[in-house]
Design goal:
Blueprint lengths: L2 H22 L25 H18 L6 H25 L6 E3 L4 E8 L11 H18 L6 H23 L9 E7 L12 H18 L15 E4 L2 E4 L1
Antiparallel strand pairs: 1-2, 2-3, 4-5
Helix pairs in contact: 3-5, 4-5, 5-6
């Protein structure tokens, strides 16, 4: 074989070997692009999966509800109770000074009369023979309102309880300091509707009005499922049993 033919075979062999070398050569390393965040979102963690994000949202909501309670409404309760008590005491003092022993005064065409009655019973003339028991009840009501006021966070309840507290203390003051003696004192009443002597509606005073108004406020809030601590209860949806599982309607 001539030298020229040997050279041609060698050249063709090198060409044939080249693809094989390429096949066994190490694969090229592909660089992964790095995205550098710029702006206000730089440095934040990558977005998490929707399921995990939902769990985190629920946790944060629960944490915010439990950790951000409104301020107690004791200032509203105290201010309203003090205002009711001051007005009740002032009107009773005026009534004793100008209405005791005098004829009833007709107002608004006979809708309201200013008269004078010393009442040994409860609001609107009830339980006249239980004066000392009513005094103890008034003590209990006042003490209970003061006790729960630590967790009082509902403005509506603060108004209702403030009215009841001011009225209860106003009548309690009469039972403690008026004749015939402590725990047996008679309450001063001076307002009568449609009749000068309480024949249509029992004679009452400012404290009685505050107690009734506060009681009505509390009953309405309770029916609306508003608690004194600011909690609002909502009725849960009834469950329907389906294929052995209970699901809301």
């Amino acid at each position: 074989m001539s030298d020229e033919s040997k050279a041609e075979e060698k050249a063709s062999g090198e060409v044939a070997d080249k693809p094989a070398e390429a096949q066994v050569s190490d694969p090229e390393t592909v660089a992964t692009p790095v995205i550098v965040a710029e702006g206000p979102d730089a440095g934040q963690k990558p977005a998490e999966s929707p399921a995990k994000a939902e769990d985190d949202d629920e946790f944060s909501i629960a944490g915010s509800i439990s950790g951000s309670l409104p301020e107690p409404r004791t200032k509203i309760l105290a201010a309203l109770a003090a205002g009711v008590l001051a007005l009740d005491v002032a009107t009773k003092v005026v009534s004793v000074a100008f209405l005791e022993g005098a004829d009833p005064i007709k107002l608004f065409g006979g809708v309201l009369y200013l008269t004078f009655v010393r009442n040994p019973g409860a609001a609107f003339g009830m339980a006249e023979s239980m004066t000392w028991i009513l005094a103890l009840i008034a003590f209990g009501v006042a003490g209970f309102i003061v006790w729960i006021s630590r967790n009082l966070r509902s403005q509506g309840w603060a108004v209702g309880l403030g009215l009841v507290l001011g009225g209860a203390v106003g009548n309690l003051a009469d039972r403690l300091f008026r004749e015939p003696g402590p725990m047996r004192g008679h309450v001063v009443d001076f307002l009568s509707l449609f009749d000068p002597y309480g024949q249509v509606w029992p004679v009452f005073n400012v404290a009685d009005m505050a107690i009734v108004g506060g009681g009505v406020t509390i009953i309405v809030l309770a029916l609306m499922q508003h608690d004194y601590d600011g909690t609002v209860h909502k009725n849960a949806e009834p469950l329907v049993e389906q294929d052995g599982l209970q699901e809301p309607k």
